[in-house]
Amino acid sequence: MAVRFDEVQVGTELPAQSFPVTRATLVQYAGASGDFNPIHWNEKFALEVGLPDVIAHGMFTMAEAARVVTDWVGDPAAVVEYGVRFTKPVVVPNDGVGATVEVTAKVAALLEDNRVRVDLVATSEGQKVLGMARAVVRLG
């Protein structure tokens, strides 16, 4: 069932989600995106360039966060604007577990034309990994 504009208010919380990220996930994403930068799969290289370990692709993290919004609204085409600032990398250790990106979101503003602004918070290991993450969504 689609979310309707008259059913939401400022402060409406979207269902929170957690997304596991493993080294295998990163290799699969690299294949899909064409981004084979070694910081996303080669631990030795990542350490040599000053990173704590292999890190997730920023666009992967951004896309996973957007899933909270698209799952809530039910139609990815309803998202008319989306932007984030990257604040910290998602470090993905090669320990068989990897990392988890946790995303919460809530309606922050009601706009004209049945649109709402949704503010998102994405964290990993207790650290905020996306700053000023916002989506504008057109509701029915």
Q: Can you tell me the overall shape?
A: elongated
Distinct helical segment count: 3
CATH-level-2 architecture: Roll
Which CATH C-level class is it?
Answer: Alpha Beta
The separation of the N and C termini measures: 11 Å
From the alpha-carbon coordinates, what is the Rg to the nearest angstrom?
16 Å
What's the SSE pattern?
EHHHEEEE
Which strand order does the major sheet show?
1-3-4-5-2
| Model regions low in confidence, pLDDT < 50 over at least 5 residues | none
Domain MaoC-like: 11-108
Organism: Kitasatospora phosalacinea
Family: Belongs to the enoyl-CoA hydratase/isomerase family.
Protein name: MaoC family dehydratase
Notes on the structure:
Residues 11-108 form the MaoC-like domain. It holds the Pfam family MaoC_dehydratas. Belongs to the enoyl-CoA hydratase/isomerase family. This is MaoC family dehydratase. GO terms for molecular function: fatty acid synthase activity. A hairpin with a 4-residue loop joins strand 3 (99-110) and strand 4. The longest helix is centred in the middle third of the chain and has 16 residues, at 58-73. Helix content is 24%, strand content 36%. The mean pLDDT is 97. It has three helices and five strands, in the order E-H-H-H-E-E-E-E. The protein has a single domain (10-138), classed as Thiol Ester Dehydrase, Chain A. The termini are close together. The protein is elongated. It is of the alpha+beta class and 140 residues long. A five-stranded antiparallel sheet has the order 1-3-4-5-2.
